[in-house]
Design goal:
This is Pro-pol protein. With 401 residues, the protein is α+β, with helices and mostly antiparallel strands. It is built from 13 helices and 16 strands.
Amino acid sequence: MFFGLTNSLATFQAFMNDILKEFIDEGWCVVYMDDILIFSDEINIHRLRTRHVLERLRENDLYLKPEKCEFEVTKTLFLGMVITPGHISMDETKLARIKDWEAPKTVKGVRSFLGFANFYRKFIGKYAELARPLHELTKKNTKFEWTKERDIAFNVLKAKFLQRPILQMPDDERPFIIEADASKWATGAVLKQQGSDGELHPCGYISHAFTPTERNYEIYDRELLAITNALKAWEHYLLGGAHPVTVLSDHKNLTYFRTAQKLNRRQARLSLYLTQFDLRLVHVPGTKMVQSDALSRRPDLVDEEENDNEDIVMLPDKLFVNVIDTELKTMLEEALPEDEFLQMTIESLIEKGTPPIKSTLQDWRTEGNLLFYKDRIYVPNDPTLRRLIWTKYKEIIGGRE
């Protein structure tokens, strides 16, 4: 890697991604610059995978320092996180600095502390609410005053970190639950999964500040934005999953979002994004969603963007259909004969009977060996196929090739 060039890091990362791409795609190899993590459930498989990676590195004239490597361990430090089977925690050496960290006396000191805290913020529930008094000190033209409120916030955050919180490792084979909420200032969300003990455990926390324009949105728009922000943050876990994603929200209007007949352009874009996920929207009173509600309390100032308040009729579904290529068509045709839902639907069309789901016969049609619902191609309920399709075509969905 050439040092001093502005694009050296990006070029090297692209190079590493390219030579190890098949291992990354198989889901057992993580690469960040010159840090490589290999993980497996069985020791024999793990050794085989390690050999594959080492051989690939040798083929590309890349070498490792043995003293910087760990092999066949059940606990490792990777990118500032301690990883153990099923869990992620913070680096103990970094936490050791927290206990004796004195209250900042300058804005630079506040930024230094928040820099550490923000790196590990996904471990701390109610982080946005707790850190808000400190964030206010970093705003432009704000006079530095270390008030009692800020001292309490500083010490409470220190105590939270010293409790050494642990996040559960996301498991693709288990359902995900998102608690999302929005205040006047920001959105907040918690990603959860059920553990082996039957209880729900957090996998991560996020919060995002609203722009001045977004603060003027109606409550259902802010709640919708909270959900889309959460989905974007964790889409690498949620897209193409084996189970529907349950979204808990404390605003009942969201239950009817998918049936809306008239959307403005911004809402239409969000609606199109949501169609990528298999969602279940559930109304939960805000009093039962303390974590995500607290995460949404962060009044950071952001440059105002152009407002979009004009309603337009939502574009017909048929305008969002992507042209299907030969390879995708073949993949679908091979999977469809085994799909019971397809056979039931075709029988209904032939006999002009009742469709297998709540819809009308006019919504369905066949074209060759493919089944269409409202001009959208039906994809069989095959998690492997859906994950493969998403991996292959995700760049085209965003308008990029």
